[in-house]
Fold this sequence. Notes:
Organism: Marinicrinis lubricantis
Order of helices and strands: HEEEEEEEE
Radius of gyration: 14 Å
Shape: globular
Keywords: Lyase
Function: Catalyzes the circularization of gamma-N-acetyl-alpha,gamma-diaminobutyric acid (ADABA) to ectoine (1,4,5,6-tetrahydro-2-methyl-4-pyrimidine carboxylic acid), which is an excellent osmoprotectant.
Amino acid sequence: MIVRSLENVLGTERDVQAETWSSRRLLLKNDGMGFSLHDTVLHEGTVTRMWYKNHVEAVYCIEGEAVLEDLTNNKTYTIKAGDMYALSGNEQHILTVKQRFRCVCVFNPPCTGREVHDEEGAYPILD
Length: 127
């Protein structure tokens, strides 16, 4: 059994900071669950372009509001607390944060914990 609190992740190697977001990685590949689980905050007023071409991702918003632009299918959605979206087809997308956006993200294959977006907005597959 794994029991881990967000408080114990903050300030460790599992607390990854980037220009537009902070990702607190609660479960990683080495935990052996077959997916990774992240508590992520995207900062108000930021725009993040992403393309998880190597992963599928599900996102559940627990706080805030953002506009999700699905570049692959040319659709736009407003995402707020209580909404979920899943990138089941490796869609290229842009998230424009209107209000501090906190979400729980699940990735498959699982992240190792060192991933940050590359020049395409993707996470590489790391061992």
